[in-house]
Design a protein that fits this description.
Radius of gyration: 25 Å
Largest sheet: 7 strands, mixed
Shape: globular
Distance between the termini: 37 Å
Strand content: 5-15%
């Protein structure tokens, strides 16, 4: 709500409260804070501007005297007027009511707080699901832009399914995972999340029931819920999702499809065994239950390659397979793909063209070059080595500081350790206290609404120094809260 780069000029002759007043007044007069907008609390504003609360009170009193804001007991402080609404014979539109009327559900409070905190460079991010800037191939990417390529590069729109050149490279790449698929059955998307959005728009009707693991990444995004669908959790064990109840639940709830992350599951890090994969596929075949297989972490194994994807043993076109470069090469490229039966891919491609007219042609070209040149394989080998080192580094800290506080799994790949806290504490209180000290956590209840015992720890993003500092302080906070 307040720009990160706007700061007070503390050497100015203009008093601090006056600077804050002028800043907020501009926001209101320019229509950025419309009538009905709830402004941040005094405490939040004081923290944002790094001033005493009394300074904020002075600024708000002046805005109130101008008739621009009004405090409502128990509800907060709201914008009530701006120059437009004061002078216009017809009142301005109530944008607040529009915001509340949108069909897409807002993130829950904790996820919104996480998203806001992640833009602060001073925060130690212990749960972030992306590669550290230290691990991204910035120099190699610069060289890729400069090198001569025999392939034609276009700055125009790509065809509905995406660049044929890239789809050919992905087709070859998937053969290493024992997935045989032609470019016609591949569609390029702007990351895995868009793949889920297109599926919800193009293949499912409102009130459909989606099966998923409990816990699941899918609970932390509202892509299906905002399309009017229901999520139903299926329990997991150390081998992955337990399929024995799927048949009964499908009949009871008229299940439309199953979403799974079998390889280095988010958030638990669990690797589904080969036997469990076959068992799951057999059950879904019998029930004619389509599967969305999310394999964005599949290349990030440590000691041993994981079992082949479910898609590699799918002879009936039952599975929609999602892959992405966001977890391995660069989240900023926003390039992923869906593999599925041609009629399905044609349908999704048509919807994609209606929504964004195709993913970035520049990003598509760069990913194709990484795959065709062999540089992607070299890069992923380095990332595996780095992530394994980071995992082991994190496990050492846990073994030293958390043995009395928590239990955890040892992931064989991916980004995450699923930490179960043994102490009886409030996860919300822990989240708030940690954030107050500049440590950002991903609590388990954003992946399973009933979970009050877990944290998703990521060893992929924070620097080694931050990991050590943040985890040691986290162990102290758990002790303090539990006493």
């Amino acid at each position: 709500m307040i720009e990160k780069d706007w700061i007070l000029n503390k050497s100015s002759l203009i008093p601090l409260h006056q600077q804050i007043y002028e800043f907020m007044k501009r926001k209101i007069i320019n229509g950025e804070w419309t009538v009905g907008t709830k402004i941040p609390t005094q405490r939040d504003l004081a923290k944002k501007f790094n001033v005493n609360r009394s300074t904020i009170v002075y600024a708000l009193d002046e805005l109130s005297a101008d008739g621009l804001i009004e405090s409502k007991v128990g509800r907060g402080t709201f914008v009530v007027n701006n120059t437009w609404s004061l002078l216009a014979s017809v009142p301005p539109p109530d944008w607040n009511s529009y915001v509340k009327s949108g069909s897409y559900q807002p993130n829950n409070k904790t996820i919104q707080e996480i998203n806001r905190a992640e833009i602060n460079p001073t925060v130690i991010r212990l749960g972030t699901g992306e590669l550290s800037p230290e691990l991204l191939p910035v120099k190699e990417m610069e060289q890729m832009f400069k090198r001569h390529s025999p392939h034609t590069f276009s700055l125009g729109y790509s065809e509905p399914k995406g660049s044929l050149y890239l789809r050919e490279m992905i087709s070859n790449y998937l053969k290493t995972k024992k997935i045989e698929v032609s470019p016609q059955s591949i569609m390029i998307v702007s990351g895995g999340l868009q793949a889920l959005q297109l599926i919800s728009l193009g293949l499912l009707h409102r009130d459909s029931t989606i099966f998923l693991e409990t816990p699941s990444y899918l609970n932390s995004v509202h892509v299906f819920q905002s399309a009017g669908m229901n999520l139903l959790g299926i329990p997991m064990d150390e081998e992955g999702i337990r399929p024995e109840a799927i048949g009964r639940l499908k009949k009871q709830h008229n299940g439309a499809l199953l979403y799974t992350i079998p390889t280095f599951h988010n958030p638990t890090g669990i690797l589904m065994s080969a036997n469990r994969r076959k068992e799951l596929l057999d059950v879904c075949k019998n029930e004619k239950l389509p599967i969305i297989e999310d394999d964005v972490y599949g290349d990030l194994w440590f000691e041993n390659p994981p079992p082949n994807p479910l898609k590699s043993i799918d002879g009936q076109g039952l599975i929609l397979y999602i892959g992405s470069m966001s977890k391995t090469l660069s989240p900023g490229l926003r390039i992923g793909w869906i593999v599925g039966p041609e009629p399905v891919i044609d349908r999704l491609a048509d919807i994609k063209m209606q929504t964004d007219y195709g993913s970035s042609s520049l990003s598509q070209f760069i990913v194709a070059e990484w795959l065709s040149s062999g540089l992607y394989d070299e890069h992923v080998k380095k990332i595996r080595t780095e992530l394994k080192f980071r995992r082991d580094f994190t496990l050492e800290i846990l073994n030293k500081h958390f043995t009395q506080l928590a239990t955890w799994n040892i992931p064989q790949g991916g980004f995450y350790i699923w930490l179960q806290i043994k102490k009886q504490i409030s996860i919300r209180k822990l989240f708030e206290k940690a954030l107050n000290e500049g440590i950002l956590l991903n609590p388990g209840n954003i992946y399973d609404h009933n979970d009050q015992f877990h944290l998703r720890l990521s060893y992929a993003y924070a620097s080694l120094h931050e990991l050590k500092k943040g985890l040691i302080r986290l162990s102290e906070l758990i002790e303090e809260i539990s006493n």
